[in-house]
Every structure is written in C-alpha cells, then in structure tokens.
Specification:
Elements (H helix, E strand, L loop, with lengths): L1 H19 L10 E4 L5 H13 L2 E6 L2 H9 L6 E4 L5 H15 L6 E4 L15 H29 L2 E5 L11 H21 L5 E7 L9 H14 L2 H7 L1 H16 L6 H12 L6 E4 L1 H11 L3 H9 L10
Parallel strand pairs: 1-2, 1-4, 2-3, 4-5, 5-6, 6-7
Helix pairs in contact: 2-10, 4-5, 5-6, 7-9
This protein binds NADP nicotinamide-adenine-dinucleotide phosphate.
NADP nicotinamide-adenine-dinucleotide phosphate binds next to helix 2 and helix 5.
C-alpha cells in the first residue's frame, strides 16, 4: 500500500517536472518590463533575462541605478525612469514601452518594486510611513498593471507579481504584511479574470533574502528611528526592554537572510519562460519549510509560535 502511494507521488512529481520544463518559443523576440531594477531581485532578474537573450526593459527609480545596470548588460537592455507611486511617471513609462514593443505587445510584466522600512510594530509606525509602504507595494503595483495591461493582453503574455511569504502569513512587519496580502488578493482576482484572454498571472513569495531592502544598517537604523519617534505613552506601554529584545530579534533575522538571490529570480524566470508557469512560487527554505506549513496551522497555534520570541511589554494587563 505505502509502496503504491510512494509510486503515485513519484509519478505526479515526474509528470509535473516534465510539464514545467517546456519552454516558450522565440524568447529573443519577447519583451519583458521589470519595475525596481536598481538593486536586489529586479536588478538580478534584468541581468539574468538579458543573458538568456530576452529583450529587457528595466524600470529604475534612480539615474545611478540605471547607469550601473546598463554598464553590466548588453546593448539590447534598455532602461527607463519609473516611480510607481507617480501616475505621470507610470504613464510615461507605459508610452515608452509601447513605442518599443509595437504590435507584438509586452510578453512579460514583472511588478517587483517594493519597500519595507520601518519594520516596526503598527503602533510605532507613523501614518505617513504606513501610507508610503501601501503606495509603493500595492497601489503602485495596481497602477503599473492597469496601465500596461493592454500591452500584455496583446501579447497574451505574463504578469509576475512579487509578493512575500508575509503575504501568506502575517508574522511581522505591520503594514508591509498588509500590502503583500493585498498583492496576493489582487493577483488571484486578476488571474481568474484574465484566464480567458490567454494572460497568465504568477505570484512570487520569497522568504528572507539579503538585498537593499534587508540591508542591516539601514533597516536597524529605521527601526530605531521609528521607536525613538513613537509617542511617549507607546514607549512607556512597551518599555525599553521590550524594544531592545525586538531589535535583537530583527537583527538576528537579518543576519540569517539567504544570499542566494537566484532562488527567487529563477522562479521569476520560470514564470516568464515556461509554457506552464505556476500560480505561486515560494522561494527559499524558510518560506517552503517554515512559513508555508505555519500558514496551515490553526491561528491560535501559529500565534503562539510567532510571538514566542518576544518578551512581555512593560505595561502588560
Ligand atoms: N529581500 C527580501 O527578503 C524580500 C522578501 C520577500 C519579498 N521581497 C520583495 O521583493 C521585491 C524586491 O525587493 P528587494 O528585496 O530586491 O529589495 P531592493 O533591493 O530594495 O529592491 C527594491 C527596488 O524597488 C525600488 N523602488 C523603491 N521604491 C520605488 C518606487 N516608488 N518606484 C519604483 N521603484 C521603487 C528600489 O529602488 P532604490 O534601490 O533606488 O530604492 C529597488 O530597486 C519587493 O517587492 C519586496 O517586497 C523581498
């Protein structure tokens, strides 16, 4: 009985492997637009796809980021300035993409741009910080998608949205987790709405990786700043000891980030080049073997596990 079961599972994985390794044709003629290419996953993906021969159109927030990327890639890769929070910037980038792709349409749109700081408790975050995170991670992603969708539909192409494992289970990171849950919901709806038009939507859910977003100095500096600027009653309520312990948990978490960014960009590449892309890609060991299983546990049990490492606040009731 167990042998039959094992054989069935083995057969399932074999068939899946065979199905997923089929690659779409004429990759060299296909255009892919990526947001947030100055650093991290977006930057690596742009270089990776350029090496593979695709026509990469890279959205960069800064001129410096664009120059550095161009210096590392072929003449086929082109960059454009893009701030996903500014509609005029999104409209201009869409027009720029349209001029390049022409009647072929845009094969791939990768919504990658994102921010996280400060990684603070919700009560320590200012409303400006919260809105900013939502504006970049969720509203910006929706703006870019809406603007470029007609081009993707023309190519019957792919949309790849970068969420996070925090979009599956909100373990910390306050509004960042909310923004990524929004990305998951938006992508699920979009996938179902567009399936009859030949457009496929994939979601990438990375665990913790070392990028610009998880830069130790910058992240810890912003956590400290959020705490220092929090109202006095909030600081009294949590207490300095609580903050020091939280700070150390974040520090240890940042130290454990994986440096193998290819685990994520390989998923993005697969979503863009496989005939049968997956709906969801969980990238990283922490995502696959800790956070995803945790997300299926009863909420009360998940709460216990996720809050285990924090001490009690000063004014506990
Ligand atoms: N690193 C992780 O552990 C991790 C885990 C899960 C999910 N993610 C997600 O992965 C994506 C890429 O992040 P990353 O880790 O590669 O971090 P990153 O190195 O900081 O890359 C994010 C990119 O987005 C750009 N950006 C920021 N604000 C923007 C705006 N308003 N308009 C356009 N671009 C903007 C940044 O530009 P500047 O560099 O010029 O600021 C940067 O190039 C994000 O969506 C993030 O949420 C990351």
């Amino acid at each position: 009985m167990w042998l039959y079961l094992a054989a069935l599972v083995g057969l399932y994985y074999l068939l899946r492997w065979h199905r997923e390794r089929q690659v779409v044709s004429h990759l060299r003629d296909k255009y892919v637009f990526i947001t947030g290419c100055d650093s991290g996953f977006g930057n690596l993906l742009a270089r990776q796809l350029d090496t593979r021969g695709l026509r990469v159109l890279a959205g960069c927030l800064t001129e410096k980021g664009a120059e550095q990327l161009k210096a590392q890639t072929s003449d086929r890769l082109e960059t454009v300035s893009l701030d996903v929070t500014k509609m005029e910037s999104v409209t201009a980038a869409t027009q720029w993409v349209k001029e390049r792709v022409g009647d072929r349409g845009l094969w791939g749109l990768v919504n990658n741009a994102g921010i996280i700081d400060p990684v603070a408790f919700i009560e320590w975050q200012t409303i400006e910080d919260s809105l900013n995170i939502l504006k970049v991670n969720l509203i910006g992603l929706i703006q870019v998608t809406s603007s470029m969708l007609p081009l993707v539909r023309r190519a019957q192409g792919r949309i790849v949205n970068v969420s996070s494992i925090l979009g599956r289970i909100a373990s910390f990171g306050g509004v960042y987790s909310c923004s990524k849950h929004g990305v998951e919901g938006f992508s699920d709806i979009l996938r179902r709405e567009l399936r009859h038009f030949g457009v496929k939507v994939s979601i990438i859910e990375p665990g913790y990786f070392r990028t610009g977003m998880t830069d130790m100095k910058k992240s810890l500096g912003r956590v400290k700043q959020a705490w220092e600027e929090a109202p006095i009653h909030i600081k009294e309520s949590y207490g300095q000891q609580f903050f020091d312990a939280y700070y150390n948990v974040i520090k240890e978490g940042l130290m454990r980030c994986s440096t193998n960014l290819n685990l994520v960009t390989d998923c993005m590449e697969h979503a863009l080049t496989s005939v049968h892309p997956r709906t969801r890609y969980s990238a990283g060991w922490d995502a696959r073997f800790f956070f995803i299983p945790l997300s299926y546990l009863p909420t009360s049990l998940a709460d216990c596990i996720l809050t285990k490492y924090f001490p009690k606040p000063a004014q506990v009731v």
